[in-house]
Specification:
The complex is a heterodimer of chains A (243) and B (277). Chain A is of the alpha/beta class and 243 residues long. In chain A, 35% of the residues lie in helices and 28% in strands. A six-stranded mixed β-sheet of chain A has the order 6-7-8-4-9-10, sandwiched between helices. In chain A, strands 2-3-1-5 form a four-stranded antiparallel β-sheet. Classes of the chains: A alpha/beta (243), B mainly alpha (277).
Chain lengths: 243, 277
């Protein structure tokens, strides 16, 4: 049964590959809220601070907030990529993530090869992955491009492939960043159809977006994040105001 | 559809359970060696996609290097070509294996950046990928030894089979080395160039083109050089002279050190890697 439970969750993102010393000097002067020094004197971004929430099965949650609010970081944390520096996170259910469309794709491999590869990444056997490839090929509807190296794909085509891939696995928890909205109208309609199926299977959708129309149409709950903390958490109407 | 991707997990900052999680990572990584194998194969085909001879280029460039260095240095060292060239062939091919593995080990995590940031995958899979990729390249080079031996009529005898435990030692070193260097290079981006220059110096300091006999007296100190010890466990048996007990002990001790340091570092910093790439 799908469920996400976070308690006092905090993620700090160390800033390594730049001049930390001059930044530190600047931090002394200002009174920064999100950039700070951790106990071992590294400059860190407090990406998420003290988040507490529970998401039950069947909920479609929109993460809203300005750029840099921590939406993508939260998705990555729920995906199990980032481990918290404080607090607790418990995720029950199989996760499918659509966080970065190009990630884990081999630019020099064809669309079909990438589908098989992704299946293997997800722990399938080669035979299972090839069986899944047929289904993904049908949904992505890329025609002859499926056997072309994906470096020759347009951004929209990459998105279609990535979306088809992530949803073909029928995850119990689907994590999405808003880049997938780059598909064309016809694809978006089919994507919506597919997501509906996925969610009526009593699973969880977590979607980071700036598009309020999408929130109203697809989601049942909205969490507003700003500066790494939750400002509002409630039904879409409560958070966005009545339509 | 059955997948073994993580179904549920719990991260609690108060109980990081580093040791258990590192062991789970290693266990799952080895269980999924098939994935590492497919990725390694993909790396090789991509490296040579569009090329006519493909991975054979590795063999050809080694052969060219061998012929040019072989005749020159046989003359410089005043050793008969028929004696020097087979020895050089074995040395160069083993060194190419070690040198390439160490250099590629540095990119173990950084080259998989996209995957690391997108899905939770055992980091040991990336280290295995480096091991397999280097094994494939080595498989293209090793037959060259047979060719050279046939041309010069060298027969090492059954003792050459002792090179197999030597190869296994090397594989263990490459795995743990990839994990350690992969992590270190993800965190400190200055390490790959340092490693590259260290390897260049090591090439000249290790008896690769010069025979150990040439430094009479100092020969007993050679096993202090880890590259020499690991190399000699393969070269000795292949040349039919075998490797001394000192060399074997040294090679096993160095391997143990790499393993211990790497596992300790991995256990401590595994959960930070995603922030480093």
């Amino acid at each position: 049964m799908a469920r996400i439970e976070a308690e006092g969750l905090a993620i700090e993102y160390p800033l390594y590959h730049h001049n930390a010393r001059s930044l530190k000097r600047r931090l002394m002067g200002a009174t920064p809220r999100r950039l700070k020094e951790d106990p071992s004197h590294r400059v860190v971004v407090a990406a998420l601070r003290n988040l507490t929430f529970t998401i039950e099965r069947g909920e479609r949650v929109a993460l809203i907030g300005p750029n840099g609010a921590g939406k993508s970081t939260l998705l990555r944390t729920v995906a199990g990529i980032y481990e918290p520096v404080a607090g607790r996170l418990r995720v029950e259910g199989e996760i499918g993530s659509l966080i970065d469309p190009g990630a884990g794709m081999e630019a020099l491999a064809t669309g079909r090869e990438n589908i098989v590869l992704r299946g293997l990444y997800r722990g399938m056997s080669e035979a299972e992955a090839e069986a899944m490839a047929e289904e993904v090929v049908a949904f992505a509807d890329l025609g002859e491009f499926i056997d072309v190296q994906i470096r020759g794909y347009s951004a929209g085509m990459q998105v279609r492939l990535a979306f088809a891939l992530a949803t073909a696995m029928m995850p119990e928890i689907l994590l999405m960043d808003e880049w997938f909205l780059a598909g064309d109208a016809e694809f978006m309609a089919r994507a919506e159809e597919r997501l509906k199926q996925l969610v009526t299977g009593a699973d969880i959708l977590m979607l980071a977006t700036h598009d309020m129309a999408v929130v109203r149409r697809w989601c049942t709950r909205a969490i507003r994040i700003e500066g790494g903390v939750i400002l509002q958490d409630g039904t879409v109407d409560e958070v966005l105001g009545p339509a | 559809m059955a997948t073994s991707s993580p179904r549920s997990f719990e991260h609690d900052a108060a109980r990081p359970e580093r040791g258990a999680r590192a062991r789970a990572d290693l266990l799952e990584g080895f269980q999924r060696w098939r994935l590492a194998w497919v990725l390694a194969r993909t790396d090789i085909t991509h490296r040579y996609r569009g090329s006519v001879l493909g991975p054979l280029w590795v063999t050809i460039s080694t052969a060219v290097m061998l012929i040019s260095l072989g005749f020159l240095y046989a003359k410089l060292f005043q050793i008969e070509v028929g004696v020097y060239l087979p020895w050089l062939a074995v040395s160069l091919i083993i060194w190419a294996m070690i040198g390439q593995a160490v250099t590629e080990a540095c990119a173990t995590i950084t080259s998989a950046e996209g995957v690391v940031r997108q899905m939770p995958l055992p980091y040991s899979v990336h280290a295995l990928r480096t091991v397999f990729r280097n094994a494939v390249v080595a498989a293209h080079n090793l037959p060259l030894i047979v060719v050279v031996f046939l041309i010069f009529g060298v027969s090492p005898g059954w003792g050459a089979l002792w090179a197999i435990p030597g190869l296994i030692l090397l594989a263990i070193n490459v795995f743990w080395g990839s994990l350690l260097l992969g992590l270190l290079c993800a965190r400190f981006r200055d390490i790959p160039p340092i490693v590259a220059s260290v390897m260049q110096i090591a090439f000249f300091l290790t008896p690769v083109i010069w025979k150990p006999e040439l430094i009479e007296g100092a020969q007993v100190y050679l096993p202090l050089n880890p590259f020499f010890a690991v190399m000699e466990t393969m070269r000795g048996p292949i040349m039919g002279t075998g490797a001394s007990a000192t060399v074997w002990i040294a090679a096993i001790v160095y391997t143990g050190i790499v393993w211990a340091v790497s596992q300790a570092f991995f256990t401590r910093f595994r959960n930070r890697v995603a922030f480093w790439v």
